[in-house]
Amino acid sequence: MEKIDILVVGGGGREHAIIRKLKESPRCGKLYCTPGNGGISRDAQCFDVAATDVEGVVALARELKPDLTFVAPDDPLVAGMVDALEEAGFAAFGPRANAAILEGSKVFSKNLMKQYGIPTAGYEVFGNPAEALAYIRKQDVYPAVIKADGLALGKGVVLCDTYADAEKAIKDIMEDRVFGESGSRVVVEEFLTGPEVSVLAFTDGKTVKPMVSSKDHKRAFDGDMGPNTGGMGTISPNPHYSQADADYCMEHIFQPTINAMRQEGRPFKGCLYFGLMLTPKGPKVIEYNCRFGDPETQVVLPRLKTDLIDILEAVREERLEELEIEWSDDACACVVMASGGYPAAYKKGLEIRGLNAEGQVYGATVYHAGTKYEKNRFYTNGGRVLGVTATSDTLEDALAKAYEAVSRIDFHNAHYRKDIGAVSL
Ligand code: AMP
Ligand code: GLY
Q1: Ligand 1 pocket, 194 CB below 6 A?
Q2: Which residues pair with 158 in a beta bridge?
Q3: Which helix H or strand E contains 226, and what residues bound it?
Q4: Mean pLDDT (whole number) for 108-132
Q5: Is the entire prediction scored with pTM above 0.90?
Q6: What is the mean pLDDT of the chain?
Q7: 89-121 burial string, b = 16+ CB within 10 Å, else e?
Q8: 3 state SS for 268-327
Q9: Any long-range contacts for 136-142 (C-beta under 8 Å, 24+ apart)?
Q10: Closest ligand 1 atom, CA of 189?
Q11: Ligand with an atom nearest the CA of residue 141
Q12: In angstroms, what CA-CA distances link 158 with 152, 165, 166, 168?
């Protein structure tokens, strides 16, 4: 069997889950990761090139000569890392920049959906703060949803309950440029209601194969309170997402998006993340991401039965149609342990207790996010620290196992939600 060496770009829980899955493949050769983290360093050889450093990663590929480079995070994809790797002669998994724009520009994605009749919230685009505010005042409907056009570390969406909130959001985004150039334009959008669902999908630019669904818990505190975060925990499958929803999305959202991108001369090859809301008028797109979700990946990939390396190759070689992708019927739950204070200020460098030498704990899989490994010990090194993940035949049992494992791990001021997967959410 031909083994292949793989370089994974990124260093969070998502990348750890990808690396763990790749490791299960009998075809997996050497595994490299940059920058990785403490837990990933137990599974792959790590390097200190930043995930956003396009030239640095190309130089690393020249040194390591991997058979495949898997670019996981949004920023390098939007910045054209896959283009740069391919131009230097290296095979890479992930969309080129002209397709990653689906996440890189909300104006682009909203206009694409409008043009191709893909269901999404109604919207207007503004390049001028006064005009945006005049529109919001005239609409007089709250909450008003304001989105910065470009990437904003997941913080570019503001739900405004009053006109004063909208004034502040427009000032922050468009005048003070708290998200930099991302705020040169804004989308003002209709407020939608309903359960949110994340669906990741493999696509080779023609065929799209959705993965099993998942549900993210974005707010920092129990009961969906507190600030938005990168995600405090996930479950798969998403209990709100029916087969009828899946069929509707395939016909009206997933395949039409892939077709639209191809028609625009921007074939999307890689993993496309559909952030959906199941509104009273049917499923609608809240956002596209040009990559695997974090922490969605941590509950989706453990359920994948087909060899991930075979899928990555089929995507690259545009043979996805031929490949049958199999999933287990198990449920999976991930509880994120974060540093107290996250998503605002928090401390780093605190020792994590309860993990074994591999950074794992009995009864669950611990995907490391913000950790580092020094002299046989693990330390916190970020806001989201660990994704403690368990699989079982029922969701209740998967959650019980994940929380049992969480109770064995400790670091100073650790914070996690106690209600991941609760029926009421
Ligand atoms: P995003 O950063 O794009 O994932 O958006 C953050 C969160 O804002 C989403 O998960 C939704 O909960 C919420 N959101 C975004 N757009 C809308 C909308 N049009 N209506 C209601 N909620 C929204
Ligand atoms: N969990 C949301 C994201 O990956 O964007």
Answers
A1: no
A2: 146
A3: strand 225-228
A4: 96
A5: yes
A6: 96
A7: ebbbbbbbbbbbbbbbbbbbbbebbeeeebbbb
A8: CCEEEEEEEEEECCEEEEEEEECCCCCCCHHHHHHHECCCHHHHHHHHHCCCHHHCCCCE
A9: 136/160, 136/163, 136/166, 136/170, 136/188, 137/163, 141/190, 141/191, 142/191
A10: 19
A11: 1
A12: 11, 9, 8, 10
**pLDDT band at residue 156, thresholds of 50, 70 and 90?**
confident
Ligand number, closest to the Cα atom of 188: 1
Rounded to the nearest 10 degrees, what angle do helices 13-24 and 308-316 cross at?
100
Does residue 144's CB lie within 6 angstroms of at least one atom of ligand 1? Answer: no
Name the residue with tokens 């056009």: 149
Report how far ligand 2's centroid is from the alpha carbon of 130 (Å): 31
Give the whole-angstrom CA distance, residue 211 versus residue 237: 10
Higher pLDDT, 181 or 106: 106
- Supply 404's token pair: 């049992």
State which ligand 2 atom lies nearest to the alpha carbon of 289: 5
Q: Which atom of ligand 2 is nearest to the CA of 231?
A: 1
**Element holding 245 (H helix, E strand):** helix 243-249
pLDDT for res 222: 97
Atom of ligand 1 nearest to the CA of 192: 20
Query: Side chain identity at 247, as an amino acid letter?
Result: D
Helix or strand run (H / E) with residue 248 = helix 243-249
Task: Please give the domain boundaries of the chain with CATH numbers for all domains.
Answer: 4-94 (3.40.50.20), 122-189 (3.30.1490.20), 196-322 (3.30.470.20), 331-415 (3.90.600.10)
35-46 pLDDT, tens digit per residue, is 999 999 999 999
Testing ligand 2's pocket by substitution, the residue of 197, 198, 199 carrying the most ligand atoms inside 8 A of its CB is 198
- Cα 315 to ligand 1 centroid, rounded to whole Å: 29
Shortest CA distance to 193 belongs to which of 279, 287, 285?
Answer: 279
Which tens digit of pLDDT belongs to each residue from 8-30? Answer: 999 999 999 999 999 999 999 99
Ligand 2 pocket by Cβ (under 6 Å): 154, 216, 231, 289, 293-294, 296
pLDDT at residue 2 is higher than 90: no
